Amino acid sequence: MPATRSALFRGALAAAAALPLLTLAACGYGSKSQGADADQKVAAGARKIDGLDSVRIGYFGNLTHATALVGHRKGFFQKALGGTKADYATFNAGPSEIEALNAGSIDIGWIGPSPAINGYTKSDGKSLRIVGGSASGGVKLVVNPKKIGSLKGVRGKRIATPQLGNTQDVAFLNWAAQQGWKVDAQSGKGDVTVVRSDNKVTPDAFKSGAIDGAWVPEPTASKLVAEGGRVLLDESSLWPDKKFVITNIVVSQKFLKEHPKAVQAVLEASVDTNKWINANPGAAKAAANEQLAADSGKALPANVLDPAWKSIRITDDPLAGTLGAEAAHAVEAGLLQKPDLKGIYDLTLLNKVLKARGAATVSDAGLGAR
């Protein structure tokens, strides 16, 4: 790959790392997450796992992180951790969560594939492991129907993505390239103008006409629809079997090595949460929304929550084969040198949990740690 592309990727990482971080007194990153008091109490006399006082868990306030939202709200994580306290922090962007993981401010987290790939490759394979899956789907291209009437009509328009080099940004750049359009990955200028916009402000930008559409995860996509937008493309339609990884579970390698019992407990809670979500979709949707309200101070209205929830598939499978494809998309966009992802997965504990519950094990697609 030409040196200029390598420089592009370094620039993208530097820009992402420079994003302002919200202060959390306990760890210095993210925002302290709130839960239902009854669900968060450590049972009297319960035994600590590995002697740990707490396990620090990170996630985003997105419905694509439903496992973490519901597991927090319904107390699945605290129950599995026994006498070890489940502490939570929420993040707005992948790079800040990876930085918190690297700094030891969180131990385990729910995160998208691109930040996981970036974090792993930037550390030469020493920072993290993907230890489980969480969700597939939940990403859409939503446009202003008065400005864009077809996929070809996206050319020449202003389309928002959440952040330079994030999972949706890479996906949109890859899709634009498949249309034969040229876009400079770093500046976002070209046959389409890519506007990097925080998901929190994208609906207002859409409403004001500052952008013509956005390639975004849920619930932002459904918020745009509520503002008069139209779903022009569901990203799942671009993938085999309509499945692609949108959220994985990552853990610092240091924590995994030193506290495998704690990691296994979190994975047990994740598997049990996913089973409960899929068996009780209505109650799970409500629980996720309650946790979003607790974390952000505002619940999602039904006209946003209902369509957003329907587009997300909850799964224990990390869909490892699609991670390699997403990395290839980043390479083709000029945001990443061809990465060596060997060892990014360690699904040993997850498969142990799945076997114990009589469920099918999952594959690391040849990218597992040895």
- What is the end-to-end distance? 28 Å
Query: Would you count the extended β strands for me?
Result: 12
CATH third-level topology of the largest domain: D-Maltodextrin-Binding Protein, domain 2
Strand arrangement across the biggest beta sheet: 1-3-2-4-11-5-12
Helix-and-strand structural type = alpha/beta
Shape assignment: globular
How many domains comprise the coordinates? 2
Computed Rg: 20 Å
Mean pLDDT: 89
Q: H/E order of the elements?
A: HEHEHHEHEHEEEHEHEHEEHHHHEHH
Name the poorly predicted regions: 1-28
Q: How is the main sheet built?
A: 7 strands, mixed
Helical content class: 40-55%
**Total helical elements:** 15
What is the CATH H-level superfamily of the largest domain? Periplasmic binding protein-like II
Give the CATH architecture of the largest domain: 3-Layer(aba) Sandwich
The top level CATH class name of the largest domain: Alpha Beta
**What is the oligomer described by this structure?**
single chain
Q: Report the portion of residues in β strands.
A: 15-25%
Main location: membrane
Protein name: ABC transporter substrate-binding protein
Signal peptide: 1-25
Keywords: Cell inner membrane, Cell membrane, Membrane, Signal, Transport
